[in-house]
Structure formats: C-alpha cells, structure tokens
Amino acid sequence: MRIVIAPDSFKECLSATKVAAAISEGIKRVVPEAEITCIPFADGGEGTVEALVAATSGKIVSTPSVDALNRPIQSFYGILGDGKTAVIEMAAASGIELLTQEERNPMIASTFGTGLLLKSVMEAGFTEIIIGIGGSATNDGGAGMAQALGFRLLDKNNDPIGFGGGCLSQLHRIDSSNVHPNLQKVKITIASDVQNPLLGSSGATYIYGPQKGATPQLVETLEKNMNHFSEILLREFGIDYSSIPGAGAAGGLGAGLMAFCKAEIILGFELISSVTNLEEHVRNASLVITGEGKIDQQTAFGKTVSGVARLGQKYHVPVFALAGRVDEDLAELYKQGLTSAFSITNRPMNLEESKANAAQLIASTSEQVMRLISGVEKV
Q1: Do residues 319 and 312 make contact, with C-beta atoms less than 8 angstroms apart?
Q2: Please, which pLDDT band fits residue 11 given cuts at 50, 70 and 90?
Q3: What's the Cα-to-Cα distance from 36 to each of 27, 57, 85, 307, rounded to whole Å?
C-alpha cells in the first residue's frame, strides 16, 4: 500500500513536518509494511519557507525584522537549492502567531516587518523572490510593507501616515521618489493561500478581520479605510485591485505587493505542489492523508486540503483529512474530491488541551482511519 502524507501545519501548534510524522506513526501501528511518502506542505502561510527549502535542499538564513506591532524580532528567509531564489513568509514577521490574543488589533498591526524581509533579500542580491502571505495579523493592504521599501504614504499635509489599517483613511498620495533601487530589478511571486478579493463581503476585512481582533464596529471602519486605500492605488497605479482574486490575502498584502512591487500572484498550493512534485506522488498512491488545524467552508478556497483533494479526484485516489476542528458544511470540499474529514479530538476538551496533545491525537486518529480502511477492505 502506497500512502502519501501531505498535511499543512496545525497553526499555533505543530509544524507540517511534525504533523506528517504523527500521521505516519498512526499508520504504521496498523499497516507497518506501508510504503509512506511524507510531503510536509504549506499553501503560502506558515511553513512555506520550510517546505520549499526542504524540497529543494536549500537553507534558512536568520535576519532581523519587526513584528506586526513593530517590535524588533529575529526572523528568517530561505534560499532554495538553486542558490538563486529567496523565499519569504510574511508570517515570520507580520504573522498572527507572533502576537498574543490580547495584542491582536488590525487597526495598528503593520506589514512593515514583511517589507524589511523583502529589503534583506534584495540587498543580499536575490532577484527571484517568492513570498508566502498566509497567517497575517494585519489588515493594512501592504501599506507597511511599502513604507519599509521607501514608499512615502502621505496625508493631505504631506506628512507620513502612521502604521496599520486604522491609518489608511489618512492617505492622500504616494511618493515613490525614494523607493529602494533594487525593487526594479527583482521578480516577486506571491504564493497566496486564498483567493479572496480586497473588498466586499468575501474580502480581506469581512472574512479575516474578526480573527485578527477586529470587533464588528472595527470591521466596518477597516473596510471603509481599505476602500479608500483601493481608490488611491487605482489613482496612483492605474489598476483596480479591489476584485482581483487573492488581492485580499493577508489583509490586502496581496494587493499591496501587486501594486507597489509589480508582483505576480498564484495559489501557494500550486507553486509548492510543483516544487515538491506532489501530483506525481498522488497519482501513484493508494490513498492520501492531508490535514490542517481547522477545516471549514474557507478551506475550499485554495487551502492545502482543497488542493490535495482536487489531485485525488483527478487520479481517483481517496483523500482523507485530519483537523483539530471540522465544521459541518463541507459540501464544496466533497465536490472537490475529499473522501472524508476527521476531527482529532476524541472527547470533550478545550483548545489548549487539544494543542498540548496534538501529536498523540493525530497519531491516534490516523490509526483509527487506517483500521477503518483495513476493515472495509476485508469485507
């Protein structure tokens, strides 16, 4: 039996590598002779650097940056095995996991640290850059990133605006005269984990603002500010980014990278799938097990589980998914090819207990999935 294990990380809990190891352990309890291929995955969010570096035998480089509240941190970027391509994940600087629950506030959270990571790789001489933009704590449209690269975002008095989504309403014009000189020399590819537009009911603010700490009232303010920001981008760059798929990813960083850096946006799953040769592995598999921290209606919009399910459907390979939480309405995922989804929690427990025991729970659930499959095969 050939089994492919291709999970994403369980956010704020386990890396994709550790999730894959736990699934493998559970499988071997039932089918020790199984031929297992582990492909720790990412779709543009946390773990993107690790996944691409591991797949290409590259390396990780430490570099200073700041978090979403502009506090100094030690961050990192990756160099792929070709030695020519740098890979960044915005979550390593402007990520939500770097903030406590009480600190999360998209009105003041900024992508400035992500801009510093871009600056670091440009100054290191890289001209091919991949940036994964999932897992953000921000809703500033990439304004902070632009500020770090030398764009001056000015108010009506020609004074620089502040940081965060709450300051976007003050933006009057953009001064590009002091932009980092290397920006014109690089090609930036955005690996996005979602396809949400910048504005509207399915946009950056309404869908993701609440999980970043925005109250219903703040969501309305942030959406109004983002609409103003979008109008300024249209005036300054001549392109309407408001409805482009993926523009709303990472609190609008997708739009910001396209506007300020002329970046190309693709689904992170497709990029990482290509690098890791996932499709070929799935084509030759008996079954596939994937997973991520939470599986819900949003998962169908380009997340790892969705992408793996589509590949399974293409090659008629069953795909099972594990998650800390599984919502009820997964109809779209089933249409995409998901066979079934399983929650790893085996009894009533709070979130912290689930996180603390995640590896054991994943292994146990994987074992039960394999026992079910083995039992059915014998019928």
Answers
A1: yes
A2: confident
A3: 9, 20, 30, 20
DSSP 177: T
CB distance 242 to 169 below 8 Å: no
- Contact between 230 and 242 (Cβ < 8 Å): yes
| Gyration radius of the chain's alpha carbons | 21
Hey, what amino acid is at 72?
P
DSSP reduced 3-state for 89: strand
pLDDT digits (tens, 9 = 90+) for 264-318: 999 888 888 988 899 999 999 999 999 999 998 778 877 899 999 999 999 999 9
Q: 247: buried, middle or exposed (CB in 10 Å: 19+, 13-18, 0-12)?
A: buried
Q: What is the full DSSP assignment across 210-262?
A: GGGT--HHHHHHHHHHHHHHHHHHHHHHS---TTSTTTTHHHHHHHHHHHHH-
| Pairing state between β 319-326 and 287-295 | parallel
The answer to whether residues 268 and 227 touch, using CB atoms and an 8 Å cutoff, is: no
* Torsion angle of C-alpha atoms 160, 162, 164, 170, degrees rounded to 10: -70
Q: All domains of the chain, ordered by start, with CATH?
A: 2-41+277-378 (3.40.50.10350), 48-269 (3.90.1510.10)
Mean pLDDT of the chain: 94
Give 227-244 pLDDT, tens digit per residue.
Answer: 999 999 999 999 999 999
How do residues 208-227 score in pLDDT, each as one tens digit?
999 999 999 999 999 999 99
